[in-house]
Specification:
Blueprint (H helix, E strand, L loop, with lengths): L11 E11 L2 E12 L6 E2 L2 H18 L5 H11 L3 H8 L5 H7 L6 H12 L2 H7 L1 H15 L6 H12 L3 H8 L3 H8 L10 H10 L4 H18 L13 H22 L10 H15 L2
Antiparallel strand pairs: 1-2, 2-3
Helix pairs in contact: 2-4, 2-6, 6-7, 7-8, 8-10, 11-14, 12-13
């Protein structure tokens, strides 16, 4: 066939390598058959060659799907709010199959793993909580949007969670803390340098921050924390009693103080210990070496 680009030579069958995007990652497929012009190097694909390329790309995509863990399988049901019977019906599998995968009594087969991944792909909230590349992309977008000069660490983390729709269980797993500890950080209830250095390093890594970003967030947190000493729950009137009411009061008080800092620059600047930040940075560096 005469080259439709230069009209100087005939296309000849050859093989090439081609980069494709698979699950957000660039992969190279080798030995792809195509037709190429020797003169201008223009490339075309016959129908059969296009099918061959598609088969290789799909095969690569399937192989790149990580085997889902027990924790991820449980998390998926929580995200979709499905019982074991409901998710088995949805996937058209035996009533006890999914439960055995969750409990680790039986490993999920490659074909079933692909089937569950296809279900995950249909729900954005499931993708962002279970697929690492999706999670990192959403966290990066939220970081750019919410990282400002006046935001506290708690407010920043809270905004990222709301924006990305990440579950607190997922955040806690990444940061190495429990839900109660995460909520205290969100409400700026912890004196900044009392946040364990390991946790602070995890925060920097997961939220894609710099040490300078962390310093700014913690110094703003310190302002909120210091104001707490002069404000009581009498300023946050909320009817009711018990832990639920106390939690609401904590969150409300925190938001009032954060808003005050945004609108009034009279609160004196306070510094975070350089030694603390250095120790956090050292922990980050030690992980790079591993």
């Amino acid at each position: 066939m005469l080259c439709s680009n230069c009209f100087n030579d005939e296309y000849r069958t050859t093989t090439i390598s081609k980069d494709v995007t698979v699950n957000g990652v660039i992969k190279t497929i080798h030995d792809i058959e195509c037709e190429q012009c020797p003169s201008c190097k223009d490339i075309i694909f016959t129908h059969q060659q296009s099918l061959g390329l598609d088969k290789k790309r799909i095969n690569l995509e399937f192989k790149s799907k990580p085997i889902l863990t027990q924790h991820q399988l449980k998390l998926l049901r929580k995200i979709l709010n499905l019982s074991l019977d409901e998710i088995c019906d949805l996937l058209h599998i035996g009533k006890n199959s999914y439960g055995r995968w969750e409990r680790g009594e039986q490993g999920i087969s490659p074909s079933m793993n692909l089937l569950v991944h296809q279900l995950i792909d249909r729900f954005p909230e499931a993708r962002v909580n279970l697929i690492e590349s999706e999670m990192q992309a959403e966290v990066e977008k939220a970081r750019i949007r919410y990282l400002t000069d006046l935001v506290s660490l708690g407010e920043f983390i809270r905004n990222v969670i709301i924006s990305t729709k990440l579950l607190k269980d997922v955040i806690c797993d990444k940061l190495g803390i429990k839900v109660g500890e995460l909520e205290k950080i969100e409400n700026n209830e912890i004196y900044p340098v009392n946040i364990p250095e390991t946790v602070a390093a995890n925060i920097v890594k997961f939220f894609r921050l710099t040490i300078e970003n962390l310093r700014m967030l913690l110094e703003n947190t310190l302002k909120v924390y210091s104001l707490r000493q002069h404000v009581s729950f009498m300023h946050v009137r909320q009817a009711g009693y018990g832990k639920g009411t106390s939690d609401i009061q904590e969150k409300t008080l925190n938001k009032i103080l954060e808003q005050y800092l945004m609108e009034d620059g009279a609160v004196p600047q306070q510094s975070i210990s350089s030694e603390y930040l250095k120790n956090v940075e050292t922990r980050l560096e030690s992980r790079k070496d591993k």
